Amino acid sequence: MTIPTRITGLLVKQHGYNTTNPEGHIRFESMDPYIELGEVDTPDLASGQVLVEMSMAPINPSDLHFLKGEYGQPRVQGKPAGFEGVGTVIAAGDDAYAQSLVGTRVSFAATPTGTGTWATHAVSDAELCIPMPETVSDHDAAGFIVNPLTAAAMFEDAKSAGSPGVVLTAGASQVSKFIVALARDAGLESVCIVRRDVHNDALTDLGATAILNQNDDDFDQRLKEVMKTHKPRFLIDAVVDATSTKIFNAMGSNSTWLVYGSLSAEIPPLSNPGEFIFMNKVIRGFWLAPWLSRAPMEEKIEVFGEVQARFADGRWSTDVAATLRLAHAPTELVEALADPRGKVFITP
Ligand SMILES: NC(=O)c1ccc[n+]([C@@H]2O[C@H](COP(=O)([O-])OP(=O)(O)OC[C@H]3O[C@@H](n4cnc5c(N)ncnc54)[C@H](OP(=O)(O)O)[C@@H]3O)[C@@H](O)[C@H]2O)c1
User: Fold this and answer.
1) What is the structure's pLDDT at 25?
2) From 26, 146, 173, mutation site for ligand 1 pocket: most ligand atoms within 8 A of C-beta
3) 170: which of 88, 118, 196, 285 lies 20 to 30 Å off by Cα?
């Protein structure tokens, strides 16, 4: 295997956080202010690090929040972007486990001490690499960590809360679709909130119990009916806007509002303090990063195995809107991201 001296990638153009004029959304007019095709030196590998020859990487909302400087870690100007991907380990630093991965196809997460995945090669930590069987396709393996693990962890949370079902905002997102399938297989109900009907057939085919369009005139009435019939007590919310408050208000005692995304720039009103005082309702957050470092290794291995099995036997699959070449991404990305059918991927 040839170890390259230079890595070609989509390099981050800005630095740090955007504290001056945060936009609070992930719409882009142009990628020009944010990324450019360029080269960096291949870093020397520290102990425990690996060099991965990239096959494919997804573009997730977290990547887009990051490019805007509005994510949980600061931008580093001049480094390739991209938080996860799939590829083959071609070199390793001074560590037996890292070296045992050389030649192995892995799904992996990028780390702040390594380099990003929207590139020909990426440096990451061996402990963040999951060996991937060929039965899992490149599109599924590329997005193996961020969304599937988030879906699995949050669904476990909902089950532990004893809720008969879940309510999902951004109901047609990849995370929500994974949760709809988990709910279907566990005999739980799923209520999907969408903003356009284009998603309804796919969600019905997946087994969603109810689909509500938040822009419909009769949304409030249908929400009331669905809450009365199904009584879900767990709201899994990636949007966080006035509709989220409306949904939470319509849910009964002992309900949880789990916030895991921030797709809307709106600040939702908290209209009824009595919900927290008299009805034991709670709002809390979920972020995968601390979950990954906190969860016991046995639990993680079990979840990784379950996710692999679901992709391999087709219970889960990743919807693809477009697969772009690295060199074309700066100009083609904005249009590709507007396609509601699925995710956008990058190949070298
Ligand atoms: N906390 C964590 O650790 C963690 C981990 C993974 C993902 N996430 C979050 O999970 C969310 C979903 O990620 P994903 O990759 O599954 O998304 P995705 O597949 O890219 O889909 C995004 C979905 O969000 C909808 N949407 C966007 N803006 C919206 C708004 N203002 N109001 C209502 N719907 C809106 C889109 O609807 P249209 O089709 O109508 O455009 C689309 O269906 C993101 O917020 C992401 O940041 C969080």
Assistant:
1) 86
2) 173
3) 118
CA of 99 to the centre of ligand 1 (A): 36
User: What is the rounded average pLDDT of the residues 255-277?
Assistant: 92
Q: How far is CA 295 from the centre of its chain?
A: 18
Ligand 1 close to Cβ of residue 239 (< 6 A): yes
Q: What residue segments make up the domains of the chain, in order of their start?
A: 6-143+318-347, 150-289
Contact (Cβ atoms closer than 8 angstroms) between residue 218 and residue 191: no
173 C-alpha to center of ligand 1: Å? 5
Contacts of 90 (CB under 8 A, 6+ apart): 1, 2, 3, 51, 52, 53, 102, 103, 121
Evaluate: CB of 196 within 6 angstroms of ligand 1: yes
Answer whether 213 contacts ligand 1 (Cβ < 6 A). no
pLDDT at res. 1: 73
Q: How many angstroms does the Cα of residue 264 sit away from the middle of ligand 1?
A: 10
- CATH 3.40.50.720 correct for 150-289: yes
pLDDT tens, position by position, 76-128:
999 999 999 999 999 999 999 999 999 999 999 999 999 999 999 999 999 99
Q: Please state whether the predicted TM-score (pTM) of the whole model is above 0.90.
A: yes
- Among candidates 125, 44, 114, which has minimal Cα distance to 80? 114
Ligand 1 center–CA 133 separation, angstroms: 28
Superfamily for 6-143+318-347? Medium-chain alcohol dehydrogenases, catalytic domain (3.90.180.10)
